[in-house]
User: Fold these one by one.
Assistant:
Number 1:
Amino acid sequence: MLHERLAMSDWSVLRLPGRPGKHTITLAFALLFIVCAPADLLLLRRGQDEAAWGVMIVGMVCAIAVAYAAIGVEARRYARMLEAERLHAEAFQYASTSIWVEDWSEVGRTIFELRREGADPYARILNDADLVHRLYESVRILDVNDATVALLGAANRPALVGRLKDVVPASAHTFDAWLMALTRGDHTFRAESRVRHCDGTVRDCLVTASLPQEEAGFSRLLVSILDVTDYKADQARLARAERDAAKVSRLLTVGILTASIAHEVNNPLAATITNAEAALRWLDRRDPDTGEAVAAIEGAVAAARRARDVVDRTRRLVTRSTLDTQPLDVHATLDAAVALVARDLGEAHVDLGVAVAPGTARVQADPVRIQQVLINLLQNAIRAMRPGAGPRRIMLQASPHAEGVCIAVRDNGVGMAPEMRDRLFEPFSTTRPDGMGMGLAVCKACVETHGGRLWVEDTSSEPGTAVLFTLPKADQG
């Protein structure tokens, strides 16, 4: 391999098996040349001119041989250096990953000057908007490879050389993140970004770079950009397939449960009807037999109670009878729910903001159930967004309330009709053609089990929907 050959001695590479190495021969010529010089002088003093001339000729031959060997060594070293540069250029040029060579010298000089002054570069730079702007304008793109030209759809490589702010205007959104990593002294930078092709399409990309630790390294920063659009699309399709499979499984479970309930309840209902009809017949006779009528009615009551018991057992089967409540930090609870719907937010291109008002207390709640309520409400808000509309935004807010803590999920989606709001929390009531109409009913039951309320707030003055619910405060102490 090339790096192994470069690590070996110049002559050992050319040494032939079973023969003296060239470095040995060269050493012999050098020693012979050293010996020839004093020998020639000695022979001249003794007057042996012919012998002196012969020794001088031998010395000259040795000198020429040594010089030739030295030139050969340097020539081979130079050839190997050119080969290494050629391989490096080919690796850069023909790599399938987009590679950028960028000059961040001004950024590096500023960071190291602040460190030499004993200042904190992280605090000084990021708190000075003018300095950040000046540093951003100083970054230059020195070179890119062909993969970069293809990624951006540029005309050629020179079209992508110049100031970073001119070539990639969107880089202003991520420059602060770069500065934070560099001023902290991070060894690597890794972030997701979106790159716009010249035809207007947007590609999802993973940006990585090995960050310099010395000031000199800032003059040549290598940045790699990997197009992960297709990969993320495959992952999204897989996630959708998993969700569809889970939905089918839930539907099958509901179907089985419904069939089971119908089977269990059908007999007592049939008995109730039979007894009721018998009681009517006993009472409808010319001489009503009240005794038989009472017995029939008692049978109907007993059958109805059996049906009620079946429903109660089923309810206890599918819902936990007790809550595992504990004091929960509201902000952490909201963040955990947001993390679980992050993929859905990204696929729908929805921005989500989280705001917890000062003074909001901890809540006493079952973390699993409350997390499911939040996920359900957030997913409903995501699905309510207008396709192809302007900015899509959801606000997840928490604030103190007379009943404890109020949590609100507000979206700027399509909203809902007033008549729909009245029966929104009824089972099997839905505004979506593919919805089951159970999510909000389950959310309402879950919140009420905690002692809270869930309702829809009137947003007729602005588009969208706001769903709010309350939870009790945790005991202080």
Number 2:
Amino acid sequence: MDNLVLFCKSYSKDMLRAKRLAESVQRFNCDKLPLFMCVPSRDLGSFKRCFEGIACKFLTDEQVLVESSKRNGELPRLYPPHLLQQLIKLEFWRLGLCRNYVWIDSDSYFIRPFNISDFMVDADTPYLIQDEFSVDRAKQKWQGISQKELEKRIKRNIFLIKKFRRLFNNSGPLYNFGGGMPIVWSVNVLKKFNKEYLKPRKMSIYEILFKYPCETHLYGEYLHYSRVIPIHPKSHMFKSYLYLDEFVRSQIEGENEYSIARSYLGICIQSNWTIFKQRQKKLERVAKHLKEYQVALGRLKFKRLD
């Protein structure tokens, strides 16, 4: 079992981005941390051909979900597909491959050398990746956008943070635990979350993620609540462009990989605004809306665990 590994959950539409990430890992990975790439079984062959010559260990989504189902039961039929990526990140630890893992999405990549010490305080304790949320800093970051959009983003951030704080009855500063890669997780924290938080409430990871759909905030706020391991906060390590306007402003200001590398380990270019989205076929749209309608009617049921 490795003490620390890198983990990426990807799929066919992100395959070339995932390859860019894997190539950056191969180039800058000073301590030779293993990279695990998790993809749907139907995409495995394509990924292996695309990644030929790149050091990478492949897993399938199905492998993770099978291990998850041993504790949580079968995944409910109406479970939202967009939550599967988060679920697989949260349940990767069940494969017993590591004690800690750094997960990073396909739309991110390293731009300078990195070491274990970038992610771990010591052999047992990973950093908790978090940034304090400030309205003033948000206004500075998003200057140039309309007032309406600015207020919308700030309101959305505050709502999300406070929702998870209420879940664990936490107080103090508002923290963002997501919004940039990579994220470092302790398997011990995830084990305790399942055993000491979910189990007494007879809840599955499926249910908590459906009700509180943000894996980074679940982990971060739970760690602040439980103190399973010592908290050593560290700011997000990649320059992240979550919105198109952030990227455009960066280009106008002349930023590039060399200038960004002075302060960051890598770059995250959010795929939501960079993908050419194809219009779904009529039957696919109908099936999607029907499923969403059934969920809205309360047809999605969760098994109460022992």
Number 3:
Amino acid sequence: MEDPKLLRKFSEILARKLKDFDVEWVVGPFTGGAIFAYDLASVMGVFSAYAEKEGERRVLRRGYDIENRRVAIVDDVLTTGKSLRETYSAVLEAGGIPVVCGVMIKRGEISLEVPLFFVLELNLPVFKPEDCPLCKAGIPLEIRGKGGL
């Protein structure tokens, strides 16, 4: 998200993969998914929206009229799939018709009722804290985008 030129390349690649789904709206979870949704929608020539957190769920506010519209649900990175599932539910609740999902980077697995497309797949190891080699070496964890630890 830091480099708009690189983001545009991801958007162009995913737009080609989604071209046959007659998408009218692209919706992503706020924040990273919202930025990606906007750029992808720009490439596709359609509308964009984002789903905001409201308690333990996501909702579409701000008057987005997606009722009976074909929606692509996107996110920047798929790890657990929680954000995509929450956004999927928010689209359904708002009357939208989810037709496809897409992510820039796929790190995990998810099962949805629609096809999932990705630009890049990364198979990175996941460790429990007690098994993490960095933790064992005393190297502090840095969580980008969440203010670090």
